[in-house]
């Protein structure tokens, strides 16, 4: 089941051009494109004439032209041209989806268009601060339900086991982390501290630490599918808890998990370098290291999905480290219920 009355990332803004891009979102076929003025549009990927995918067409001066018989549609989904026919039937249109370009993302609303409140799109200003947070973004298609990826990010005790050679380090460092969780109106926030711990391999490649570090992981989950992360480490004895804005390792991560189908997800991610901002090679190295870590996650959650598909998840057991994950699941369940009631009343 999907929450339809919510904002999802449809694409990175630079993915979409005047060449139509086919993408399935919440199991609905969507075509993304830019018109000749550069405005981005999102339409149902089905021509209203003979059901050909509009993504097989091309952008003309008038709009998106179907590649089968030439009907052309603007960003609102209205048919603006039919070859050989002056009068255009009023019902000659395709569904359009609210689409907003912001902070290098294209956000799409898959539910009732009149409920698409732009003010509910989260802010991610770090994408606009290239001097302080130089960054690079990526996209993985992951063969699992999106909730398994959210679960993965809510229980970070997996890091020492899955990511021992990259961002992890000792498993017990993560199991014994000091964690504070705060519920919010849109999800939750949590901060984890790992004092006097050995820096993991990715951190040591980036910064020449003197020895052990005070390490933190700060997460904000914005339901249903966005997670903002700030992680870093500073040499022990530098009072990191009261001042994280000092030399050391620091990065911002964005995780956007858009359901493609019930068992596949588009994982939009961005990593920003907050420690050696004037060196593009460092930003690239960080991107490569984080990308490697996320592929480690991809391997485990895809295997997890296969087993869940085969055997279900009814008999699974919760443990202490699931606290944030359980709160997240309750938030999503509440939103699903509210969304279902809204659709039933419509």
From TrEMBL:
PANTHER family tied to this protein: 3-KETOSTEROID-9-ALPHA-MONOOXYGENASE, OXYGENASE COMPONENT (PTHR21266:SF60), IRON-SULFUR DOMAIN CONTAINING PROTEIN (PTHR21266)
Keyword DNA damage: no
Superkingdom field: Bacteria
Residue span, Rieske domain: 7-108
UniProt-recorded Gene Ontology molecular function terms: 2 iron, 2 sulfur cluster binding; dioxygenase activity; metal ion binding
UniProt xrefs under CDD domains: RHO_alpha_C_DMO-like, Rieske_RO_Alpha_VanA_DdmC
Source species: Noviherbaspirillum cavernae
Protein's recorded name: Aromatic ring-hydroxylating dioxygenase subunit alpha
SUPFAM superfamilies recorded: Bet v1-like, ISP domain
Annotated Pfam families: Rieske (PF00355), VanA_C (PF19112)
Lineage: Bacteria, Pseudomonadati, Pseudomonadota, Betaproteobacteria, Burkholderiales
Residue ranges of coiled coil: none
Keywords recorded for this protein, A-Z: 2Fe-2S, Dioxygenase, Iron, Iron-sulfur, Metal-binding, Oxidoreductase
């Amino acid at each position: 089941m999907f929450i339809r009355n919510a904002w999802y990332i449809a694409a990175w803004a630079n993915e979409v051009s005047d060449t139509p891009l086919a993408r399935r979102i919440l199991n609905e076929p969507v075509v993304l494109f830019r018109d000749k003025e550069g405005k981005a549009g999102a339409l149902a990927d089905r021509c209203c004439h003979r059901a050909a995918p509009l993504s097989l067409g091309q952008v003309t001066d008038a709009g998106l032209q179907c590649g089968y018989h030439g009907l052309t549609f603007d960003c609102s989904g209205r048919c603006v041209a039919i070859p050989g026919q002056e009068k255009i039937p009023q019902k000659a249109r395709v569904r359009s989806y609210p689409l907003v370009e912001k902070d290098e993302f294209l956000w799409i609303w898959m539910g009732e268009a009149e409920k698409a409140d732009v003010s509910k799109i989260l802010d991610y200003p770090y994408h606009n601060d290239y001097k302080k947070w130089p960054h690079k973004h990526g996209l993985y298609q992951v063969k699992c339900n999106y909730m398994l990826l959210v679960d993965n990010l809510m229980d970070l005790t997996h890091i020492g086991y899955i990511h021992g050679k990259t961002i992890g380090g000792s498993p017990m460092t993560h199991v014994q982390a000091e964690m504070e969780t705060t519920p919010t109106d849109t999800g939750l926030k949590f901060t984890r501290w790992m004092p006097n711990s050995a820096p993991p391999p990715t951190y040591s490649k980036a910064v020449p630490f003197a020895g052990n570090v005070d390490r933190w992981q700060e997460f904000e989950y914005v339901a249903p599918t966005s997670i903002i992360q700030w992680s870093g480490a500073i040499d022990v004895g530098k009072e990191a808890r009261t001042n994280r804005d000092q030399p050391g390792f620091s990065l911002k991560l964005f995780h956007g998990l858009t359901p493609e189908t019930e068992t596949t997800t588009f994982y939009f991610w961005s990593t920003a370098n907050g420690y050696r901002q004037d060196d593009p090679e460092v930003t690239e190295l960080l991107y490569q290291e984080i990308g490697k870590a996320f592929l480690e996650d991809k391997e485990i959650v895809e295997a997890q999905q296969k087993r869940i598909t085969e055997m279900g998840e009814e008999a699974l057991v919760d443990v202490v480290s699931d606290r944030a994950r359980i709160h997240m699941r309750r938030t999503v369940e509440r939103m699903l219920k509210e969304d279902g009631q809204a659709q039933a009343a419509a």
